[in-house]
Amino acid sequence: LPRPPPAAAGSCSVGQCGHRAYAPPAERKRFYQNVSISQGEGGFEINLDHRKLKTPQAKLFTVPSEALAIAVATEWDSQKDTIKFYTMHLTTLCNTALDNPTQRNKMQLIRAAVKFLETDTVCYRVEEPPALAELQKNEWDPVITWAEKRYNVTIGSSTSILGPNIPASTKETFVSHLASYNMWALQGIEFVITQLKSLILSMSLIDRHITVEKAVLLSRLEEEYQIQRWGNVEWAHDYDLCELRARTAAGTLFVHLCSESSTVKHKLLQD
Amino acid sequence: MAALGAPLRTLRALLRELRQAAGRSYRDSPAYRHVLAAFRAHRVTTEKLCRAQQELHFQAATYLCLLRSVREHEALHREYHGRGERSPQEVAGLVGFRLPQQPGGK
């Protein structure tokens, strides 16, 4: 029997009809047998049986990279009885890139990304407890040093509540560096930055200086410290950790797959 | 370059994750074939520190992290957060009541 939607905002119970007037259902049944990829005019498309996948705004779902299309198809194919949209991070990123629901242009995305530098996690230091301050120094200083060397900028760190004082030239350097990425890759970069709460960690990850696991660890450094001290709560800590890892990995992979060049092929053909 | 370990190890773990995600026909899935083809294509190289090889390895490690984390996250969700709300009958039963069958409270 269909129930009227509950008055208070809360998660719909699984197994009940998930339809509510103001939000799409979190899960729906898998309605397709086969997932395949085809190449169309705009790029690679995903086919669910004979139907072409569309974005939430009903545009045709096309991606520029075959590897990305394969990964998205794998996401759709690995859904079992119900489609769990919250696990399909690459699909979500592609939908965001295609629909651009926040309607931001390239410069607005770049400015939003660089703005994070003012409150970058790795630049915000505590003074106590001393063990945590020491841990932050040992783990975060090397990343800042790497970024300063790699981009030839001054960043520094701060224990003040106002955060570090980032010179305008540093911001401009990052703005012009990010401008070299295309719109799709930028959506991915901005996503990773919002997940990790740090521009420096995101650039370190995208430049392949650290792995996803390491970036997530550094982003959650204080949490990890508290977990070591007070104990781990699986249903909260591990849950958040896995979700953050999944999203960050998806964002990073998305950026790399959207900014690939075909120089690899040239090298192979030379032999 | 990030500390990644042996490419073979990453490849094996990645193929294992794909097998878990796909089910019976994992060997025919486009992802499985694409990963194997990419690794084979990059095996033969004249340079010791081939940049393309490192980029591929990083990509593979990132994809492995994605698949693994999604699987673990889903498992945790099922275990701890997946049960949803109780029905009104169950809630009443918690304190020993039964819901009335007829309007008027009978």
TrEMBL record, chain A:
**Pfam families per record:** ATP12
Recorded GO CC terms: mitochondrial inner membrane
Chief site of localization:
mitochondrion
Instruction: Output one GO BP term.
Output: mitochondrial proton-transporting ATP synthase complex assembly
Q: Where is it located? A: Mitochondrion inner membrane
Membrane topology, as annotated:
Peripheral membrane protein
Extract the coiled-coil ranges from the record.
none
Q: Which Gene3D superfamilies match?
A: ATP12 ATPase (1.10.3580.10), ATP12-like (3.30.2180.10)
Q: What is the superkingdom listed in this entry's lineage?
A: Eukaryota
**Record's InterPro entries?**
ATP12_ATP_synth-F1-assembly, ATP12_ATP_synth-F1-assembly_N, ATP12_ortho_dom_sf
User: Keywords assigned by UniProt?
Assistant: Chaperone, Membrane, Mitochondrion, Mitochondrion inner membrane, Transit peptide
The record describes the protein's role as: Plays a role in the assembly of the F1 component of the mitochondrial ATP synthase (ATPase).
> What family does the database annotate?
Belongs to the ATP12 family.
Quaternary structure note: Interacts with ATP5F1B; involved in the assembly of the F1 component of the mitochondrial ATP synthase (ATPase). Interacts with FMC1.
The cross-references to PANTHER family, in alphabetical order and at most eight, read: ATP SYNTHASE MITOCHONDRIAL F1 COMPLEX ASSEMBLY FACTOR 2, ATP SYNTHASE MITOCHONDRIAL F1 COMPLEX ASSEMBLY FACTOR 2/ATP12 PROTEIN, MITOCHONDRIAL PRECURSOR
* Protein name stated in the entry: ATP synthase mitochondrial F1 complex assembly factor 2
> Which gene is annotated as encoding this protein in its UniProt record?
Atpaf2
TrEMBL record, chain B:
In terms of CDD domains, this protein maps to: Complex1_LYR_FMC1
Q: Which domain of life is it from?
A: Eukaryota
One GO cellular component term, please give it.
mitochondrion
Name of a matching Pfam family: Complex1_LYR_2
Cross-referenced InterPro entries: FMC1_homologue
Family per similarity comment: Belongs to the FMC1 family.
Protein purpose: Plays a role in the assembly/stability of the mitochondrial membrane ATP synthase (F(1)F(0) ATP synthase or Complex V).
Record protein name field: Protein FMC1 homolog
